[in-house]
Amino acid sequence: MKKKFYKGRSDIIFKGIFLKDSNRDMLKRLIEESINKKVEILEVKASELPKGNVYEKGKILDVLVASDEGEINIEVNSYSDEDLHKRNASYIFERYSSSVPVGGSYADMKNFIQINLTYVDKEKGKDLEMISEYHLEEIHRHEDYINNLTIYEYNVSKIKDEWYNGDRTHGIMALLDADANEFETIGTGDEMMDRFKKEVKHMNSQLGDVQFRDPDEDAEIIFNTILDNKKKEAARQGREEGLKEGRAEGRAEGRAEGLAEGLAEGQIQTKNHVARKMKLKGIDIDMIADITGLSLDEINDL
Predict the structure, then answer these.
(1) Tens-digit pLDDT profile for residues 244-273
(2) Is the domain of 26 the same as that of 153?
(3) Structural domain of residue 250, as residue ranges?
(4) Is residue 285, in this structure, part of any structural domain at all?
(5) Are both 247 and 129 inside the same structural domain?
(6) Which pLDDT score is estimated for 269?
(7) Are residues 45 and 103 in the same domain?
(8) Number of structural domains, the chain?
(9) Within 10 A of 192 (CB to CB), how many other CB atoms are there?
(10) C-alpha span between 44 and 46 (Å, rounded)
């Protein structure tokens, strides 16, 4: 069996490289390529978010960095979907909401930056622009609601494609989706990119025959999960709509039956009232029966 090659975007490879102290310069370059700004890394922080309670499973961030530009959370995604966007947003919002200590001031809040490095399977995933930048703002006037939260999303598949087309803006990022063969053509001669490739190859050799689930397999699982969830949701909505329609039809039928019964009852009461008056006036009972449709016994009982 051919040994699997884990790309730079594989979780175990990505964290193994960028969380290593000796590769701090490589992490710095990746961040600078992402936000198009020079940064100084002050600390690579613990990547586990605090648990809400002792039973809650901890949420592990990929890479969390304290810098002179603020706190930077880097997430590597193996699939593009709005539910994953919500998941990633929940990470940065949790950091944002817990950043002001008791007795602190919102005016002193630092900047928060999330960098989403997303692999997109062109046949299965929602397509993404090569680079997207998100802020929380008013949609008509484009005024910031807050000015210290930015989310960047990079389609690493397109970044690699653009490298072949001559765009050298995102070198380290272009290598994230490269396989062993592509290492021979991307970034050769760039000292840091060559070092990155060497690290990836070394880690692959260290993994031996241990088989980890890579992002492509994760994408397949996520895709199938999303598909199943959408099918279940469609079935649930169909059942709810059917029940609503059934109830509505039932109410309509009930109203119709009630109206028919009311009219029938009203007609009987009207006939009885007319027959009673005619009887009091001494009109012949046969004539009353003929006019009202009541039987002779019914008229006699009035």
Answers:
(1) 666 666 655 555 565 556 555 656 666 777
(2) yes
(3) 234-301
(4) yes
(5) no
(6) 65
(7) yes
(8) 2
(9) 17
(10) 7
Q: Give how far the C-alpha of residue 15 lies from the chain's centroid of Cα atoms, to the nearest Å.
A: 24
Whether residue 227 has pLDDT greater than 80: no
With tokens 């900047």, the residue in question is 111
Give exposure, 197-217, as e/b (b: 16+ Cβ within 10 Å): bebbeebbeebeeeeeebbbe
- Is 6 within a domain? no
Please indicate, yes or no, whether residues 120 and 85 belong to a single structural domain of this protein. yes
CB 77 within 8 A of CB 119: yes
Distance CA 154, CA 157 (A): 9
Domain assignment of residue 2, yes or no: no
On the question of pLDDT at 57 being above 60, the answer is: no
**pLDDT: is 168 or 57 the higher one?**
168
Q: What are phi and psi of 262, to 5 degrees?
A: -65, -45
Averaged pLDDT for residues 205-218:
62
52 and 191 in a single domain? The answer is: yes
23 three-class SS: helix
In percent, the amount of the chain with pLDDT more than 90 equals 41
| Residue 142 structure tokens | 């484009």
Please check whether residues 266 and 126 belong to one and the same domain: no
The 10s digit of each residue's pLDDT in 282-292 is 777 777 777 77
CB 182 within 8 A of CB 7: no
Q: Could you tell me what percent of the chain has a pLDDT over 70?
A: 70
Residues 264 and 201 in one domain: no
Whole-Å CA distances, 232 to 79, 126, 228? 21, 20, 6
How far is the C-alpha of 166 from the C-alpha of 77, rounded, in Å? 25
Residues 7-18 have a mean pLDDT of 90
Residues facing 75 on adjacent strands: 116
Q: What is the pLDDT of residues 115-169, one digit of tens each?
A: 999 987 666 545 678 999 999 999 999 999 999 999 999 999 899 999 999 999 9
Is 17 within a domain? Answer: yes
Whether residue 269 sits in one domain with residue 192: no
Any idea which residue has 């809400």 for tokens? 52
Largest distance between two CA atoms of the chain: 122
